[in-house]
Amino acid sequence: MAEAPDVETAWTWLLERRPGTRGWFDDTLPPVAAAAYAKPVLRGLFPFHTHGTLKFIREAPPWHEPPIDDLPYVVLGEPPYSVHTAGRATRLGEAETAEDAIDLVMAHLPPELSGDAAGRHL
């Protein structure tokens, strides 16, 4: 599977459902991806579809080690969507719509993730 080289390309491929890239085969991803892309802070993070989830990573590849996975994420599937902390340590809640799930992610982002900080190494 091809990995996008930067944040902007990752979002483009995810929203286009480009064959052979992350999430292209997952029919439950588009509403959550679109809702996340509508948020400038999340749009500045690397969208990472893996194992039925949409995660947000602070930096784009290449990763010399596994990327820092410390942000809340959405478990995909049919609503209600479940939102968890990194590592699935805590379920933050459930949401009936993709937009509400993304709002839950936004409400639990660390304070340093503002429009100016997103997309840089933090």
Account of the protein in words:
By secondary structure, the chain is of the alpha+beta class. The protein has 4 helices and 5 strands, in the order αααβββββα. It has one domain. 27% of the residues lie in helices and 18% in strands. A 5-stranded antiparallel beta sheet has the order 1-2-3-4-5. The chain is globular, with a radius of gyration of 13 Å. Mean pLDDT is 89; it is low at 116-122.
Q: What labels would you give this structure?
A:
five-stranded antiparallel β-sheet, globular, single chain, disordered C terminus, 122 residues, 4 helices, alpha+beta, 27% helix
- DSSP strand tally: 5
H/E element string? Answer: HHHEEEEEH
Class derived from helix and strand content: alpha+beta
Query: Please, how many domains?
Result: 1
Describe the biggest sheet? Answer: 5 strands, antiparallel
Query: What is the helix fraction of residues, given as a range?
Result: 25-40%
Strand percentage lies at 15-25%
